[in-house]
Amino acid sequence: MNVVPDTSVVIDGRVSAMIEDGQFEGATISVPEAVVAELEAQANDGIETGWDGLEELKRLAELADEATIDLVYVGERPDAIERGHASEGEIDALIRDLAEDLEATFVTSDIVQAEVAKAKGLDVRHVSPETRRVGTLAVEEFFDDETMSVHLKTDAVPRAKRGELGSMHYEEIADEPLDEERMDEYAREVVDGAKEAPDGFIELSEPGMKIVQFRDYRIAIGRPPFSDGIEITAVRPIAQTDLEDYENARELKDRLLERQRGVLISGAPGAGKSTFAQAVARFISDHDYAVKTMEKPRDLQVGPDITQYTELSGQMAKTADALLMVRPDYTIYDEVRKTDDFEVFADMRLAGVGMIGVVHATRPIDALQRLVGRVELGMIPQVVDTVVYIEAGSVHTVYDVRTEVKVPAGLTEEDLARPVIQVTNFETNEPEYEIYTFNRQVVTVPLKDDDGGPGTDTGVDRIAKQEIEREIRSIARGYVDVQLKSQNKAVVYVEEDDISSVIGKGGGRITDVENRLGIDIDVRTHDENPHRGAGGGSASANGGGGGQEAAGQMVSPEITSRHIVIPVDGNHGETVEIQADGDYLFTATVSRGGEIQVSRGSAIADELEAAIDRKAPISVVPS
């Protein structure tokens, strides 16, 4: 009897099993080289099935050594083109042709392969894939009621995170390290269990990394060369909460049910963000809203009424396109991290879908700031109107986000009114931050002192001082010191020689500056500064005149039709001085894009352009 097995039945290990139970005893097992090539390619890519198939070939070799069977390898090894079209059936066709040429019994556990072979008149033995009831995985034995995650690695003692939310401890849970053989056994059991259990699946399969969802467990398996040893990390939710368990529950419920909203659930890793998101998902689903999720991997614990989606063809944008056809009322997006994620979140929200995103952040405001630069500033309140910050499993802060056209806090002139994003504490109804465009930059200004201590400048104070310094230094040649007396009054100390230049004829120049900034400015000399000599109030502190020796970054400004653009390497968002041949020119703030733009036609632009024309070295010095 001559038997030709295909790749599927070799991977299943069914050929050796049928030999051992007497069905193929004494037969000639003709293994196609095409099968060997497929298994070798899979093993090289770190795919478990390749290794399983190679193990089966070793068992067949042992049975041949025992004279139980004759083992031969037949056919030609497929070329690269044929291997590249394996998914289209090229390899399967080669194996069937060999079985036909040898007039052999063709054995497969692939139903499509079996049906095609029967249609071609081959003697076919179809063996249904072996299934077994999956019980408890060995990895599960490391868990107890307080264990959130188990961490296993070759040659390391098993560890676990145990405790309650907000008070987790990373501790050893065994006495001896695990060897490679035991770790390989655990890893294979997890993968096999995911394939065979109805409530298990492989979420991600890449060379060196597999992510498995098995019942309530999300299990990541890393193998060399991706990791430096076999590593298994199993995570399980330890808390199942309802929205009523959290503070502000009634207000949050009303807010979520009032209409579809854009919500960011933020917090540090392990703070309980996903647990809260699950509670929100169940709550809105129970109140007549169609709810879906977008996750990679899918590990939120939600009811069967909530469909969990992952990446479609490797892209969440395609998942979003599909979801818009499904028309959910709310979508839970877990986790929003990369720019693409924020763009998908914004597109879904602006399409009218209620969106709830889970975001890593160490402060409540940080979650909102992650949208800056990724979403147009004026659209942020349309994309996100609620920020919930979770800390130690509890709702720590809830922010309401809205836009208002107003004069930013700390400024006074009506012509400085602009669209301002107000971030208000939901519980106290007090504004805590304002986000707006100031001098072509997006600024986030805290409306309260960070520590409440005396003498602490608020965010708007710091911005006001920077802008006053920038304006005055564009006029003065020497050192400039700014002291804020109140939100709408400042004193500027300059060199005596600069007094007339700063004030201007009839006070016209300083009046223009006051009108632009909305702040009353009193100009005095450094001799009148009561803080002179304490904290850098002397003229030598910043070295206003020539010969400054502070280390700077040499730059090559570019002159365009409308601007002089100074590229800066680093110092993004910081205040710096621009110098020509060591002489101070002006102070500016480096943009997020790493440049400073000076509008041509202004006094400082003329000075800068003259310095460039005379080939003076231009440098950027931290202020």
From TrEMBL:
Q: Which family does it belong to?
A: In the N-terminal section; belongs to the PINc/VapC protein family.
Among PROSITE patterns, the record links this protein to: KH_TYPE_1
Task: Reply yes or no: does the keyword Cytoplasm apply.
Answer: no
Fetch the SUPFAM superfamilies from UniProt. P-loop containing nucleoside triphosphate hydrolases, PIN domain-like, Prokaryotic type KH domain (KH-domain type II)
User: Does the entry feature the keyword Transferase, yes or no?
Assistant: no
Could you list this entry's UniProt keywords, alphabetically sorted.
Answer: RNA-binding
Q: Which SMART domains match?
A: AAA, PINc
Molecular function terms in GO for this entry?
RNA binding
- All copies of the PIN domain together span 1-115
Give the organism the record lists.
Answer: Natrarchaeobius chitinivorans
The segment annotated Disordered runs over: 524-554
Quote the Gene3D superfamilies the UniProt record gives: 5'-nuclease, P-loop containing nucleotide triphosphate hydrolases
Name the chain's protein.
ATPase
Domain of life here? Answer: Archaea
Q: Domain AAA+ ATPase, which positions?
A: 259-384
Q: InterPro entries annotated for this entry?
A: AAA+_ATPase (IPR003593), KH_sf_prok-type (IPR009019), Nucleic_acid_metab_PIN/TRAM (IPR052041), P-loop_NTPase (IPR027417), PIN-like_dom_sf (IPR029060), PIN_dom (IPR002716), T2SS/T4SS_dom (IPR001482)
The record's section on CDD domains has:
PIN_VapC_VirB11L-ATPase-like (cd09878)
Q: Where is the composition biased (Gly residues)?
A: 533-549
